[in-house]
Amino acid sequence: MSDKIYLDHAATTAVRQEVLDAMLPFFTEHFGNPMSVHSFGREVTKAVEASRETIANCLGAEPKEIMFTSSGTEADNWAIRGFAQANSKNGQHIITSSIEHHAVLHTCEQLEKEGFEVTYLPVDSEGFVDPKNLEEAIRPDTILVSIMHANNEIGTIQPIEELGTICRDKKVAFHVDAVQSAGVLPINLKELPVDMLSLSAHKFYGPKGIAALYVKKGTRIKPIIYGGGQERGLRAGTHNHAAIVGMAKALELAISEQEEYAKKITDLRDMLIDGILEKIPHTRLNGPRGDKRLPNNVNVSIQYIEGEGILLHLDMLGIAASSGSACTSGSLDPSHVLLAIGLSHEIAHGSLRLSLGRENTEEEIKRVLEVLPKIVKNLRAMSPLYQG
Amino acid sequence: MIYLDNSSTTRPHPLVIKAVVSAMENTFGNPSSLHRLGLEAEKVVKEARQEVASLISALPEEIVFTSGGTESNTLAIRSVLDNTEDRHVITSSIEHPSVLSILNDYEKKGYEITYLPVDKKGHIDINDLKDSLRKDTALVTIMAVNNEIGSIEPIEEIGLILKDYPKTYLHVDAVQAVGKIILPLERVDLLSMSAHKINGPKGVGALYVKKSRELQSIMPGGGQEQGLRGGTENVPGIAGFGVAAKVAQEKMKEIKILKDKKDQLAKYLQELLPDCQINSPKESIIVLSVSFPKIKAEVLLHALEAEGIYVSTGSACSSKKTKHPVLAAIGLKEDLHEGTIRFSWGWENKEVDPKVVAEKVAKNVKELQTLWG
């Protein structure tokens, strides 16, 4: 990546060449509709089912437990709405956290309008949900808990196993939004007490427009997209089979390289965090340090200036970053995640997310550490808030 | 190889594949990102939106990208019905399963659904619609072109009648119609499209939402698609849809070529097999549904496949079920249901001689009829 440095992998990643190569034959010769009974359809069905098996194997699930959707957002929507509607006679209370992705939060808000009750668990200053809080929040009419594996903005990795165990003990279903962690952190659903889990291909070098929801055998869920009987009648619509093939390939590659990849980017991440905190005064790290932080996430608040100003200057130098999550970056409101960990509006506005990926190098990190302090210095010089 | 199953899905156009691959390789950014890569991806989406809008003579801001026709139908129906007190819906008995199954769900919740019958050519009677309309009719949802027999419904006339019912939404499932007929959008509020039926990629579709109508999201998330449909945009899929829409619009002028081939196939089949029954109405553009007595369509399908001809036994979406609601609705005798084949023409068939197809079909039908007869 010559002089361009891409540090927005939490927003999206570029499709790997191996993934694209795997997809291409499914645009050209194998273009059939998997529901067709002729050989065009059958070949495609075979590829879809083989991909389902690959993804299941990567996650320690059974093929039947993997349902394809069009996006992580759809998977989150489906898990929450589909489960709530199928199980509402057992209770109408749902628990989630205050730092979930909007796909989860907005779905919960919609359900509140429809008569459900939702508890939004607070998080501590590093973004962790306290398992004790969860335990106390569970009521006899609680049917579902939805907590993300790793936060998309500040990289906090939740104690999923502990939270899931509480849910199991209380016989409450547990959904995990693993969009940011799948392919980056190991996920073994054979051992994790999880009933539903969302993952999205374009976050691990797979194509956009394809994602999956793991639905543990025996979990009752209603469809949110109805029709032609695909995905065992639970998710209709002609399969996006080329993308499904691409997703399987991408996850398989990510899992096979996971350990090595995590080690490499953890080193780069820490180099970047240490460098920023050392070289730029009045700066704080958002989210935890160490192995409870996503290996590819850096999120810092740089006081006295606006995150978007930094972004634009970085962009002019060919460095792509983000001021929050991509999905809310168009909005002027400060991030709900940063507010939830206790930041003031003013400090939240000066936040910068740098998310690393497989093609980033030490040289690139050095370059960022060279230019970022200068940008900050210049912006602060113009800021009425900064007293030097 | 003769692929005559274009109503199930079509082969992506080479320019479509090029656009999809280019988007994956060059404009992979997240359109919501503020940096250059994000803006470039947003530009790709914007251009595609213009092409798709242009194909149906809509405004770009009236196009909401979805993951396909089924999601578009779900989005249209759910967002109307979940946000009104009115609980009456009018549809036809030959809609796509994605429409019928969601309405079935609303029926269970206490909504009243009127299923308009169709005549033997698959047309609703506009007077039936007039008689069924009520003050509390929230939605009329009628497909523009039927997927199994190719009948074209009188959307324009439906629209004229609905002018007296300004509150009632008109949704049109145009998945099989786009790129084949001109769609009169004047009174249409919502219209579903799918890219892979017009030589575009799978996994992408759109819902036209009339500017003056406001919808509520059924898939909330990061605020994409004017807040109506959350989820990172499928930029490569959308890019491919845009190119497919452009190509389809250019080719629509020549659509008669495909219709002529379909008509000729019907003519030759009737000559060679006088006992076969054509189910498709004359106006059908690409679909020819034919019933052959005393054969099992699935056996014929595989026999034709051995000859390199690919057809379907119904719509792909219901082809794994045994029932044939559309064939029943047009009054086809039940013993012919299992002997019904759908031939659907597409742009890759421009050089295919319908006579050759008819001859191969006739040969195989006769062999099977002797075998089973």
Structural account:
The complex is a heterodimer of chains A (388) and B (373). Chain A is an alpha/beta fold and 388 residues long. Chain A has two domains: 133 residues, Alpha-Beta Complex (Aspartate Aminotransferase, domain 1); 240 residues, Type I PLP-dependent aspartate aminotransferase-like (Major domain) (Aspartate Aminotransferase, domain 2). Helices cover 39% and strands 13% of the residues of chain A. Chain A contains twelve helices and twelve strands. In chain A, helix 4 links the parallel strand 3 and strand 4. In chain A, helix 2 runs parallel beside helix 7. With 373 residues, chain B is an alpha/beta fold. Chain B folds into two domains: 126 residues, Aspartate Aminotransferase, domain 1 (Alpha-Beta Complex); 238 residues, Type I PLP-dependent aspartate aminotransferase-like (Major domain) (Aspartate Aminotransferase, domain 2), CATH 3.40.640. Chain B has a seven-stranded mixed sheet with strand order 2-8-7-6-5-3-4, with helices on both faces. In chain B, strand 5, helix 6 and strand 6 form a beta-alpha-beta unit. Chain B starts with a strand and ends with a helix. The mean pLDDT of chain B is 94. The chains are: A alpha/beta (388), B alpha/beta (373). At the A-B interface, helix 2, helix 3, helix 4, helix 7 and helix 9 of A face helix 1, helix 2, helix 3, helix 4 and helix 7 of B.
Show the helix and strand layout:
The complex is a heterodimer of chains A (388) and B (373).
Chain A: E1 5-6, H1 17-23, H2 39-59, E2 66-69, H3 72-87, E3 93-97, H4 102-113, E4 117-121, H5 131-137, E5 142-146, H6 160-169, E6 173-177, E7 196-200, E8 211-215, H7 241-256, H8 258-279, E9 283-285, E10 297-302, H9 307-316, E11 319-320, H10 336-340, H11 345-349, E12 351-355, H12 362-382
Parallel strand pairs in A: 1-11, 3-4, 3-5, 5-6, 6-7
Antiparallel strand pairs in A: 2-8, 7-8, 9-10, 10-12
Chain B: E1 2-3, H1 14-25, H2 36-55, E2 63-66, H3 69-81, E3 88-92, H4 97-108, E4 112-116, H5 126-132, E5 137-143, H6 155-162, E6 169-173, E7 190-194, E8 205-209, H7 235-251, H8 255-272, E9 277-278, E10 287-291, H9 297-306, E11 309-310, H10 325-329, H11 334-337, E12 340-344, H12 354-372
Parallel strand pairs in B: 1-11, 3-4, 3-5, 5-6, 6-7
Antiparallel strand pairs in B: 2-8, 7-8, 9-10, 10-12
